[in-house]
Amino acid sequence: MSPNVEPATPAFDHRKGPRRRGEELESAILRAALDELAEVGYPALTMERVALRARTSKAALYRRWPGRAELVVDACKAGGVSEIDLPDTGTLRDDTIALLRQLSAKMDSPFGSILRGLLAETTRDPEFAKLVRERVQTPGPTAVHSVLERAVERGEVEPHILGSRRATVATDLLRNQFLLYGNPIDDATITDIVDDVYLPLVLRTERGASGSDSGGNTEPDAS
Amino acid sequence: MSPNVEPATPAFDHRKGPRRRGEELESAILRAALDELAEVGYPALTMERVALRARTSKAALYRRWPGRAELVVDACKAGGVSEIDLPDTGTLRDDTIALLRQLSAKMDSPFGSILRGLLAETTRDPEFAKLVRERVQTPGPTAVHSVLERAVERGEVEPHILGSRRATVATDLLRNQFLLYGNPIDDATITDIVDDVYLPLVLRTERGASGSDSGGNTEPDAS
Amino acid sequence: MSPNVEPATPAFDHRKGPRRRGEELESAILRAALDELAEVGYPALTMERVALRARTSKAALYRRWPGRAELVVDACKAGGVSEIDLPDTGTLRDDTIALLRQLSAKMDSPFGSILRGLLAETTRDPEFAKLVRERVQTPGPTAVHSVLERAVERGEVEPHILGSRRATVATDLLRNQFLLYGNPIDDATITDIVDDVYLPLVLRTERGASGSDSGGNTEPDAS
Amino acid sequence: MSPNVEPATPAFDHRKGPRRRGEELESAILRAALDELAEVGYPALTMERVALRARTSKAALYRRWPGRAELVVDACKAGGVSEIDLPDTGTLRDDTIALLRQLSAKMDSPFGSILRGLLAETTRDPEFAKLVRERVQTPGPTAVHSVLERAVERGEVEPHILGSRRATVATDLLRNQFLLYGNPIDDATITDIVDDVYLPLVLRTERGASGSDSGGNTEPDAS
DNA sequence: TTTTAACCGAGACGGTACGTCCCGTCTTGGC
DNA sequence: GCCAAGACGGGACGTACCGTCTCGGTTAAAA
């Protein structure tokens, strides 16, 4: 109750030489967090262990991040966990398949459970949800956009697709597949998504048919 | 924060009263779990509180379920959390929109955070992942199938769509939208999913363009 | 914030055979507390270390005692820390000196710092102060009383002294000496207290000079 | 509990203003310490809060005092916490009672818990114990001595009492009473101490009965 | 007057203990 | 046998201080 009558003088004096501060310390913590994620996974990652591993104190963590979720988000960012090798095969189909394969491989790594865990905690506040999207989810959207842009340049895809919902259908379905059915994701699933769903939606047809302005509606009864 | 859990029945000591067993006890537990979910949400639900609320012991819970995730799955099932009013408007478009709106409403309820939480815990074992899909995710797929079947009967949709990946694209995208962007889901998003993505994929066209062989999608409208 | 999404399953399973409970556990804890007191002293005693030493959990301690002060009080009681060998030399003087020497020896042991520490914490509430008096301070008063009673029987002391403030002056002064000047207490101090202060106050004199009925005052000028 | 410490001077950043040094800073710290003592009491006083309140840094505190105990000792001294209005009523009895009443009143103030706390920490080293006696305990002894000297001049007390143990019995018993039984101290207790114990020990009698030179013993002991 | 060294304020740092909560297991009695 | 109650060993939580340290300053004394 009372803070402490006599604070039990720290058992021993251990002050090291140059104490780490600022960026040096921060990157040591992020490194420790990444190592923990790789070793024990997201659900078992604790602030305690990260602090221990980084040879610092919990207080140093809480000074920077409000909780483990935010720490992990930053660790992912710092670790380049969501970096993508932008494919450039010459056709939209092969680019997209290469992209999905990379994403699928990510899901198979510790990053998979991280993604699940973080999404679970976005319930808390929209602020954090946004953070997760920006720091963890970016690879997909950005890469998709680049791939599509090149397809537009090649004439494979109409420009207006770029900003439409159709653009991200492939990665959206892959993510959904992962979250529902887990990993590993069958390669057939990837080609199925691409060939049966994605390409028909985005590829230009001689009739220019697949384009649609937002909210477009094939059925007349929508009027 | 403080565990001020008011037990459902104010003061009754089942140690020395008519002791509940079997189904009676089980449903009391599930009821308590549902109440907890509604009140504090999934992340804050603990076995301890559920046991207290159900006026039973943790042992009774662990005898039946290996952990809170499994308990919650059963509670959802028992509570009809994932039941759907099958819409029947006469057109696929309206049926689908009605369906997505219902699902979207669910996501806005405690069920939303439950879904997130459960998906996060499917990392553990595929067995449990399957359970979640079957008990928690069923409403969507089943309803989608029924709606599509009726559309097939009406001639709006080709039969082979029924078993294809295209069939569930609408619900898949909705789920993805929820998991990434949270609730509430804008109604415009729903119509966008339906009109810009889903219908072009599943509706029959005179040219049969939307058939699921690779690459084929032609838009009839917009011509 | 949220308790825990996945409680990081305890690293390892370690459940022992027969788990200690009730009195067995309690005495193990008290024993551990006593050992700690002897080794590191009261100010450095922590609940954490006691729990560790007793091979139990902090929760088990907090279930029984609200804080370390109360735990230590009980440990003292259990360890017979304040037990006294009742002296019986045949004269009040020698009995009293023997008694003070014993008390002085106690103060020289870990018990000394315990007494200081506990007295410091009696600020909190009178309840606890009472506890300290009863469990930790009892030896003095009780022994004093016995010693005095025998002196009364021998005719050395008038009976009315027994309940008066004079009865405890010797131990009161010794305690005061310890608290102000610390230990060890010089043997000359003890004989000084006894011969110069205590005996003149309690021994019967033919003239009845030092005797007094309640509130009595030998000096007329006090009026 | 929450460290809601309002700094004395509302908002002034001494980093970039006229920076306090030496005595000015020191007295600001002591003032802050006294305020803290009055507000939260000794056990809850922390270096952190004092530094915050004084709008300075912990380092400035530790440069001057090795720990909070020493700081508090100085603060007491500076705050005149142990100053006494020397009574002069004309009789030893009334002087002594007035004195004890003042001391008792002190014990009822924050000074009470300070005394307890400091005494608890004298375990550490005799040096500090001496400091406490000199800075915090002085009022009693000094005043007692003055009062007694006047009584000697009036002929109420024999001169040799002045240096004997008997001289301080009244304050010693009062202190003991406070430490064991807490405050407030009943007025009857004070008169009891004075009339039943103290005066019989120090007042001169025509018979010289209660008087004694050091080590003296009115009883032909062990006879 | 200019330099320079001491000192100041702020607060980060590594660390320990706090007291609480929940985990999943186990024991105790009572029905 | 199963039930309720809850104790048990364990571990992580997030907070509060400890006493040290680093970092830019300010300021007074030395040059």
From TrEMBL, chains A, B, C, D:
Q: Which InterPro entries match?
A: Homeodomain-like_sf (IPR009057), HTH-type_TetR-like_transc_reg (IPR050109), HTH_TetR (IPR001647), Tet_transcr_reg_TetR-rel_C_sf (IPR036271), TetR_C (IPR011075)
According to the record, the residues making up region (Disordered) are: 1-20
GO molecular-function term, one example from the UniProt record: transcription cis-regulatory region binding
| Domain HTH tetR-type residue range list | 23-83
The record, for PROSITE patterns, names: HTH_TETR_2
- What are the record keywords, sorted? DNA-binding, Transcription, Transcription regulation
Keyword check for Hydrolase, yes or no: no
- Residue stretches spanning the membrane: none
Keyword Metal-binding present in the record's keywords: the answer is no
Q: Which residues bind DNA?
A: 46-65
Question: What Gene3D superfamilies does the annotation carry?
Answer: Homeodomain-like, Tetracycline Repressor, domain 2
- Name of the molecule in the record: TetR family transcriptional regulator
